[in-house]
Amino acid sequence: MKDQLIAKLGRHEATIGVVGLGYVGLPLVLRYVESGYRVLGLDVDPKKPPRLLQGQSYIEHITATPLKAAAEDRRFDATTDFSRAGECDAIILCVPTPLTRHREPDMSYVIGSVEALVPHLRAGQALSLESTTYPGTTRDHIFPRVTAAGFSPGENLFLIYSPEREDPANPDFTTRTIPKVVGGFTPACLEVGVALYQGVIDRLVPVSSCEVAEMTKILENTYRAVNIALVNELKQVTERMGIDVFEVIRASATKPFGFTPFFPGPGLGGHCIPIDPFYLTWKAREYGVATRFIELAGEVNTAMPDYVVHKVGEVLNQSGMALRGSRVMILGVAYKKNVDDVRETPAAVIIERLTALGAEVSYSDPHVPVFPHTRKHQLDLKSIPLSKESLSAVDVVLLVTDHDRIDWDLVRNHAPRIVDPRGRFVPDGKKVFRA
Asked: Which of 40, 173, 251, 325 has CA atoms 20 to 30 A from the CA of 72?
């Protein structure tokens, strides 16, 4: 079975199923279609398959052109019917792995997807998980469910873990060019995993187990979270010293070895960095290990929205104004620049904090016309156009996300006060203030 599947994958004659047609799954679908595979997209959201089959994008940085090409290609289909999983030779899971309100892993999307697929699996298929998760997820949650259904991983079903590494709106790296780590439940599973991805990814990085692959993604994002926490803390120290931390970081970055620049901000956002380190801390407790360093970094980063809100209050106070009753414009609400993704965005927390303190809050974001309801936040807000009039009508502008499409000269010229945690402007202590 293994050799037959590898050969079929190598000839690009296999049908690839992708479960979860969002920021991770949809680029993968398009890459497999582009490479000549037959692809079946599966999603529980009934709105997504019809839009894809009409060539419509619901993700800003994914243009309509490749979607229209996929929709016109008879090798592509999309559905909510998981009973069609048997049509696929390999199935790739790209579903959310959020945290609960107690900062524990919420595996319901992974477990729910696997349980929906298991009744329709057949011998000879590959099943790959790409969702970011803690080491042991494949063994703890997928292995027992497929074995209970009568499959033997490594013999008649091939389990793989290959963490996603998407960076939305990054023009320098694409699904094809980002090196891909691949781990298999058994050596035979790894062989199939390599065959599954080598036809669409330029460089593969095979590792010895699913656990190593799972830990790889956790390390990557914990590394970033810890270093961002470091510069967020340094920002607070240097502000007291009258030193511009952004100038310090840029000067330090000229060192050609031993230093990687990280920049502070108003808090962490996105589907990985604010979440992944807590997967590791949760799992470490099972082994009696206290991950104090990681948890401290989490505390620093989680506190940044409150630090920024406090700074807004200070700036208003210097002008004899109270935060209560003041008009605050949030500039940019996406979690990172040049995308429309608001998952875990610090802007939501900042808006809620400011509103609770009595401020009148609005926002302007060219990528997010309406703030979508999320599991954590229900903000009934719409983006207002950025203009001389709208800027002049508020008491302070708080820069949260520094999109390239924002007219920064307009902001600088017409905002009465600017609180800038991103280092976009040079602070002058009169109109522009660091946070």
From this structure: 173
